[in-house]
Amino acid sequence: MAYGQNRSQVASDSFPSSIDANWTDGPGPSDVYVWVAAGDVEPQFISTHSLEKRTGEAYANDQYSVITIGNMSDGSMAAAARMQSLGGCYMGYISTASDVYRVSEMDDNTTTINTLASLADPGTEIPLSAGETLTIECEGTELRCGSNGGGSDVEKVNTTDATYSAGDPGFWGFNPTSTDGSSVSAWEGGDISASLSSAGLRPQAVL
Amino acid sequence: MYILTLFVRLWGLVDMAIEIFLVPMESVPHSDFPAHTEVRGKHTDLSLDPGMVRSGTLRYSNGSHGVAMIEADQTYLDTVAADPDVTRLATSQNLDEVLTAGQANAVKTIFEGAFIPGQFINAGDTRRQVIRGLVGMFLFSQRMSGRLGDGWKERAQARGMTLDSTWAEFPVALQSELIDVRNSFGWTNVDLGVNASSTMRDILQAVSQRFENAPIVICGVEV
Fold first, then answer.
1. In angstroms, rounded to a whole number, what is the distance separating the alpha carbons of residues A144 and B219?
2. Of B18, B65, B156, B223, which is least packed with CB atoms within 10 Å of its CB?
3. Shortest CA distance to A171 belongs to which of A111, A74, A93?
4. Distance between CA atoms of A164 and B5, rounded to whole angstroms?
5. 10 Å Cβ neighbour count for B103?
6. What ipTM score was computed for the predicted complex, to two decimals?
7. Closest chain A residue to B51 measured between Cα atoms?
């Protein structure tokens, strides 16, 4: 399946108020994060790293997750998918320190959520701004990360991994400082369904 | 030197190439945020060298090895290949070369030393087939890690399991997980042919054969 195809939205959230019962806090070393009023009330990561899992609905094994950037000042953020009960998940990840995109896997760890396995680093450095999106798609063992940073929403990198076959979508953020940091202004998640007209995985290079 | 290398690369004066390696996995401070730990294939961090373009790693486990795709200038790729911890599996030019008996035996020895069954490699196989079969075993191991936690293989080894341990000798819990992982790939035991006397080696070889003709994509590069 090509990026962006056959998505079926299950839920979205523009965070009009404090986080509701549709979300479950992931494991972490401290409080999840601080809610800050910025027009709407956005989850903002301050002096911590935190994981939020969307558990208000059921999601298919093949799923996607999209975050809209509220503020991108420090730390890193990710759209997460196939999140496990102990925090393991796949992430479409971006770091503010280097503007580097990656597809990463968060280790399923009971005590911390700060071990990231870098699965694919396309060498793309595109800074994300407020209002732009970051997406992770999981279809079978195919992982696709995309963004509309710098233009239209297109795939930035795809790769293969089989660690997680199912789970919940959500997002992750990290802010190393105690001042206002990065935030998520909206989230969307849903299923990816098979299609008879599937174009299949489209690699960027074939050896 | 960095500026010169970058200049030369941007002007296309240095050939960029894609090569596939078997590399050890390493846990290092995250390149952007040292408070975090980053697990990656050795030599795949793009900040290591301006001659690097992109990289991806398909892991056996976070604590052992991975198949790494690295696109970089040839100087960097040769540096990677010179590391005694690393095995250059293929270049973009020799992926469909047939292995000689000597090459097949050499790869078998390397794999067996990394708890990777090597008996599926034969003279006459192409490097592409070997990589796909290897990746297939790695994907199966990843799924086991997702269920049992990373390091399942190392924990099993610490409890005395070897590649020659038989199904009948596996703990019941391990047998159950292997069955569930088999099912999650959509296979039946008819597909794998496992019985009480099958070894872990036999199981992983059967898995590898399911992937030998299946293209694999690592960071946008299809093998």
1. 9
2. B156
3. A93
4. 40
5. 16
6. 0.90
7. A123
Question: Which pLDDT does position A196 carry in this prediction?
Answer: 46
Say how far apart CA B128 and CA B21 lie, in whole Å.
12
Which residues of chain B neighbour A203 with C-beta distances below 8 Å?
Answer: 215, 217, 220-222
| Identity of the amino acid at B215 | P
At B46-73, the pLDDT tens digits run: 988 999 999 999 999 998 999 999 999 9
Of A88, A115, A114, A91, nearest to A102 (Cα)?
Answer: A91
B221-222 and A205-206: which strand pairing? Answer: parallel
Residues 6+ apart with CB under 8 A from B6: B50
| Structure-block tokens of residue B30 | 């995250």
Exposure string over A21-38, b if 16+ CB within 10 A, otherwise e: eebbebbbeeebbbbbee
Chain B residue numbers with beta carbons less than 8 Å from the beta carbon of A118 are: 38-40, 44-45, 57
Dig out the tokens for A207 from the structure: 């050896």
- Residues 12-31 (A) with a CB less than 8 A from some CB of B: none
Per-residue model confidence as pLDDT tens digits over B206-215: 888 888 888 9
> How many CB atoms sit inside 10 A of residue B64's CB?
18
Whether A158 and B31 lie within 8 Å, measured CB to CB:
no
Question: Would the CB atoms of A95 and B150 count as touching at under 8 Å?
Answer: no
